[in-house]
Write a structure and sequence with these properties.
The structure holds 2 protein chains of 2 kinds.
Chain A: H1 2-20, H2 25-45, H3 67-98, H4 106-109
Helix pairs in contact in A: 1-2, 2-3
Chain B: H1 3-13, H2 15-19, H3 25-45, H4 47-51, E1 56-63, E2 68-74, H5 76-99, H6 106-125, H7 129-147, H8 154-185, H9 190-194, H10 197-202, H11 206-220, H12 229-232, H13 238-247, H14 252-259, H15 261-264, H16 268-290, H17 295-316, H18 319-350, H19 366-380, H20 386-399, H21 409-433, H22 450-468, H23 470-486, H24 502-519, H25 521-530, H26 536-558, H27 563-584, H28 599-617, H29 622-642, H30 646-667, H31 680-705, H32 715-726, H33 731-739, H34 741-765, H35 769-775, H36 790-813, H37 821-839, H38 841-846, H39 852-872, E3 882-887, E4 892-897, H40 898-927, H41 947-959
Antiparallel strand pairs in B: 1-2, 3-4
The chains are: A mainly alpha, B mainly alpha.
């Protein structure tokens, strides 16, 4: 069982780090999410693996799992949600402002390129010629 | 007056002139003077005790557990310096009042001056090494502010920077040395360190500590090779030069040498380093001073030279040297401050301080001339002024000092230094005041108002009085201070006439030679100007430039703006540290027995691993990758269920739902594919980093899991006290809301801030260039035909009360069973989200009363209020209380804990934060032309049109073709 958890932590963190090193925002966000899973599982596993003995006091059990890492991880899960939400909005904002979703600031030196495939030019009249307006 | 108060008074008083900046310079000067006088009075009241040989201590415990105390002590040496700081400070305040122009911000000036005064007093009164460091650097900072007081002058700013760099770096070196001393002795009290001289001298760290301390002292006291900053500091207003850069701050280095004299003195290392540096500085600076035309530059180099003289005396390590050094500190402070002030007067009245443009001022400015002559002759060491006495003592000491077996070198150096000193001192008097009256002064010179010459006049009077009656005027002070320096009682006997001694002959040679040099000044000056000289400022600038370029290169190399670069660097550094730790430590396989395998977890593991590999393989297809990440999250939740963490599973799965929704909404506006742009080597590099890191993390956690705890954990305490003290059976929840409630409180605050940041970001976004883009948005995915389908609307409506009930249930049981505020908040948020999804944002938004920002704020406040409630029971913040209550009608016993109020705060914050994040995204969607519906569903069967109505509608449509669409907008 320990081997399964360790290999899951290892693979998820490897995937997370690989994705975090990509050049576009969305894979980086997914990578951060993967890293969060891996790190949360890691922290959780520092309490050692215990099956079927949750830290809820009862008369039937006299041994329990370690509650402390669980409490830490619980808050970590919620915080990583807050962080993911913020990063998502940042990346969305950056994309809408600059017209590309690259993460490297090197591009800002060059003229911002609008990806014609995904991002329409902001000039409205081109797509809404005056004559067609009422047909919307 | 308590010592701490004496040191604190200038700091407290520093507020006053700044606040009263508009009240004019008289008020500012008056307040500053009053503060200084008060502190001086407090100091003088201690005089009888200190002169009597007592050492006063004041102990203020701060963090006694780690030896941090605010300790002060006052002995003869501290008294001497404090007297100089406050006494000359008072004279400087009067002088500055008349020196500064009414148009200048005198309030700011006096504030800085008081800050400096407080810092300087702190240095001489503190008994703690760490506080000494703080005060030491504060003097550097306040000196920086004062040198650069005339912000419009480029040389002022440059000089200020140079002084700060040199003295600040010296301070760092000094503290390193002092910490070593503290380490050797085992105490950071200066008075304790002084008592362990043998222990320190026996330590192998003696030499490094001494060198480090000396670098700091030399930098502060402008000793070779750090002397170059002091002349550049002369861009400061003259009161600053007189106060900081001649009388007090530059003597802080000397103070340190005197303070640590019992620890270091007597060792050959001390003699060869300190005396040599002092002698070299004395001779070199005196020679340069002779050829400076700027009066303040002349005085600056002369100051460097005299500081060298005192350094030399302290370096001798003899009692006679210490006595002479202490005496010369007093004498130098009196005559040099007076000279600086006269230079300032000349500058003020003639608008120049270039010796070449001056001369003949004797008859035009008789008062200034008299003061300058008295002080100048004292500096030259001419009897009967006080400078003569201490110079004689220096020559006497030098005459008996051999250097590396050479008996003549030190007397020769001392005589040459004294000779140059005579020459530039006489030049200061002769070239400025003597000679014929000129007719080309920039303005017509005359003596200033009395307020300006009174301060130097007082000092000049002291110069004469100390010279004539040394034992009466200064003997007691020298005795007290020199006894404190040497740590043994000394009985100096200072008289004008020693009889015919070698020192007298050296003096005669110096005076005669100096007069000769002055007579030959013109040809010598031409020779001086013709010889090439190293230019300290250019060298300093080159070093700074080199350091700045190096720092910039390093920063640009590591942080070039590409996040992937520094994430890669970060990963590699952590990896290398981990690998290094692994190979330098001892590894043995774990001994904890493994948990047996069961089939279900293995299946889940396969799903997880496959999904993870697939995410990496297919991450270019963003939608697919997102779905796969959702699967992984689900598997992680299942793992939590299996591994005895029901709370985590509940939280993980509800967060998963919310996160995926959020990412889906965001993906709507982002490109749906990531282009394949990484080169093969880059992919390989990233893969190597990722796999190595993954192996490291996996190996680490495996190693952890196969071992038992090295130390007993605090979890047992939590388990034992959960029921008894917090009244909860779900220990995880009790830790969150009670034992570690403070953490949770911080966490929900962060969550709320993140949500508010998202909201603010959206708001800013919709005002910027993104707005135009969104207005012209063309959806890149096919739209659903039925956007608010009937089935979904009805199902979510039915689900809503059930979901709320489930949420309430989860919240209430949280203390004893899996659940709690976090999970309940997420469940309710999901239920609300379903309404939004089913019927659209606008429709749902119209029906919700609570404002999300308020919800977040209320949640945090409720949690805080619950915590504060504990104060009323006389307990610390967030101490919870609980009780058991019986419900009527046989509903049984139930438990109420104040932690539930806290958990309710958590609940509200989570709901508010999640909803605010999603509401912000929907704002963007609406700006992008997403239609806003007013009805709950796209096709409402109850409003379905009968066949006749349809026919009518068709007719109307033929007449007014676009009316039908109005509902959609």
């Amino acid at each position: 069982m320990e081997l399964l958890v360790a290999s899951a932590v290892g693979l998820m963190s490897a995937a997370g780090i690989y994705l975090v090193l990509r050049l576009r925002t969305f894979p980086v966000i997914l990578g951060l999410a993967m890293l969060s899973y891996a790190v949360n599982l890691f922290l959780f596993a520092t309490g050692r693996i215990v099956v079927g003995e949750p830290a809820i006091l009862s008369l039937h059990l006299n041994h329990y799992t370690d509650p402390l890492p669980q409490a830490l991880v619980l808050t970590a899960i919620v915080i990583s949600f807050g962080m993911t939400a913020l990063v998502v909005m940042l990346s969305l904002g950056a994309y809408l402002e600059t017209g590309n979703d690259r993460i490297d600031m090197v591009d800002e030196v060059e003229k911002p390129q609008i990806d014609p495939e995904h991002m329409p030019a902001p000039s409205a009249p081109e797509r809404h010629p005056a004559g067609q307006e009422p047909q919307r | 007056m308590p010592l701490a108060l004496i040191a604190a008074l200038p700091f407290l008083g520093a507020l006053l002139p700044g606040l009263m900046a508009r009240a004019g310079r008289n008020t500012a000067a008056l307040v500053t003077g009053a503060v200084t006088a008060l502190a001086l009075l407090g100091l003088v009241l201690h005089a009888p005790a200190v002169i009597g040989g007592q050492v006063l201590h004041q102990h203020i415990a701060w963090v006694p557990q780690i030896g941090l105390n605010a300790d002060f002590f006052l002995d003869g040496l501290g008294f001497l310096f404090a007297l100089l700081i406050l006494g000359i400070g008072l004279l400087i305040v009067i002088y500055a009042r008349f020196y500064l122009d009414p148009s200048e911000n005198t309030g700011e000036f006096f504030t800085y001056l008081l800050l400096f005064q407080g810092a300087m007093l702190g240095i001489v009164l503190t008994d703690n090494v760490l506080m000494l460091l703080v005060f030491w650097e504060l003097t550097s900072l306040s000196s920086f502010l004062l040198i650069g007081f005339w912000k419009h002058l480029a040389e002022g700013r440059q000089g200020a920077r140079m002084a700060l760099t040199v003295t600040g770096m010296g301070g760092l070196s000094m503290i390193a040395g002092m910490l070593i001393l503290g380490h050797i002795v085992g105490s950071y009290d200066i008075s304790t360190i002084l008592q362990h001289a043998e222990e320190i001298q026996a330590s192998p760290l003696f030499l490094p500590a001494m060198i480090l301390v000396l670098v700091g002292a030399f930098a502060k006291s402008a000793q070779f090779p750090f002397h170059f900053w002091l002349p550049h500091a002369m861009a400061a207003p003259t009161p600053v030069s007189a106060y900081l850069h001649s009388a007090t701050m530059v003597k802080a280095g000397l103070f340190l040498m005197a303070r640590l004299w019992p620890v270091f003195a007597g060792r050959p290392e001390w003699f060869y380093v300190v005396s040599t540096v002092g002698l070299v500085t004395m001779v070199m600076a005196a020679k340069i001073a002779l050829f400076k035309d700027d009066l303040k530059a002349l005085l600056a180099y002369s100051t460097v030279s005299h500081l060298g003289l005192i350094t030399f005396l302290f370096g001798l390590g003899t009692k006679a040297g210490a006595i002479a050094g202490v005496f010369h500190i007093i004498n130098h402070a009196t005559f040099k401050a007076a000279l600086f002030m006269t230079a300032g007067i000349v500058d003020h009245e003639t608008h120049t301080r270039d010796a070449k443009r001056l001369g003949g001022l004797m008859t035009l400015m008789p008062i200034t001339f008299t003061i300058a002559t008295v002080a100048g002759l004292s500096m030259a060491g001419i009897p009967p002024f006080n400078g003569f006495l201490s110079k004689e003592m220096m020559l006497e000491a030098a005459a008996h000092t051999g250097w590396w077996g050479l008996d003549w070198i030190v007397p020769l150096g001392a005589t040459v230094g004294a000779l140059f000193s005579v020459a530039y001192a006489l030049r200061y008097v002769a070239h400025v005041f003597l000679g014929p009256v000129r007719d080309d002064y920039p303005t017509q010179p005359h003596d200033p108002v009395p307020g300006m010459w009174i301060s130097p006049a007082i000092l000049a009077t002291l110069v004469i009085l100390i010279g004539l009656f040394p034992m009466t005027m200064a003997g007691w002070l020298v005795t007290a201070a020199a006894s404190a320096v040497t740590g043994a009682e000394v009985h100096p006997h200072i008289v004008l006439w020693h009889g015919i001694t070698p020192a007298l002959w050296m003096s005669v040679i110096a005076i005669a030679g100096g007069a000769l040099l002055l007579a030959l000044h013109a040809p010598l000056n031409r020779l001086w100007e013709a010889t090439p000289k190293p230019h300290a400022k250019a060298m300093f600038d080159a070093v700074i430039d080199w350091a700045a370029r190096g720092a910039r290169g390093l920063t640009q190399g590591l942080h070039n703006g590409a996040i992937s670069r520094y994430l890669a660097i970060f990963s590699v550094v952590v990896l290398v540290a981990g690998v290094w730790a692994f190979f330098t430590g001892a590894y043995s396989p774990g001994t904890r027995p493994m948990t047996p395998l069961e089939p279900v977890p293995v299946i889940a593991w396969f799903a997880l691993m496959a999904a993870t590999v697939a995410v990496v393989r297919y991450h270019h297809n963003r939608l697919l990758a997102l779905v796969l990440v959702g699967i992984i999250g689900l598997m992680v939740s299942i793992a939590f269920v299996y591994l005895s963490a029901p709370d985590l599973a509940l939280t993980q799965i509800s967060v998963e739902v919310v996160t995926v929704m959020l990412l889906l909404l965001a993906l709507n506006f982002l490109p749906k594919d990531s282009p394949r742009e990484s080169s093969a080597p880059r992919k390989t590099r990233d893969a190597v980093i990722a796999i190595a890191s993954g192996l490291g993390l996996g190996g680490l956690i495996y190693a952890l899991m196969t071992r038992d705890f090295a130390y007993p954990t605090i979890s047992d305490w939590h388990m034992a006290h959960s029921k008894a003290e917090a009244g909860g059976e779900n220990v995880v929840n009790v830790i969150i809301v009670d034992f570690r409630g403070y953490d949770t409180f911080g966490e929900i605050t962060v969550l709320g801030i993140a949500a508010l940041a998202i909201y603010a970001l959206t708001d800013a976004l919709l005002r910027g260039p993104a707005n135009a883009r969104l207005r012209g948005w063309v959806p890149d995915l096919k739209r659903a035909g039925d956007r608010h389908p009937l089935m979904l609307v009805v199902a979510t409506r039915v689900m809503m009360p059930i979901a709320v009930l489930v949420g309430a249930f989860i919240y209430l049981r949280g203390h004893n069973e899996p659940g709690g505020g976090f999970v309940a908040g997420l469940v309710i948020a999901i239920a609300l989200l379903m309404q939004y999804m089913a019927s659209g944002f606008a429709w749902a938004h119209l029906r919700q009363r609570a404002n999300y920002q308020n919800l977040i704020g209320f949640g945090v406040l409720l949690a805080a209020a619950t915590g504060i409630g504990a104060f009323f029971n006389g307990r610390p913040f967030l101490t919870s209380d609980f009780g058991h209550f019986y419900l009527p009608w046989h509903l049984g016993e139930f438990e109420l804990a104040t932690a539930m109020g806290f958990d309710a705060g958590v609940f509200l914050t989570v709901v508010g934060a999640v909803m605010l994040a999603l509401a912000s995204l929907s704002l963007i969607a609406r700006r992008a032309g997403e239609t806003v519906n007013q009805t709950p569903m796209s096709t409402d069967p109850s409003k379905a049109k009968t066949p006749e109505e349809k026919a009518n509608a068709l007719d109307e449509a033929a007449a007014e073709p676009h009316d039908d669409a109005s509902e959609e907008h």
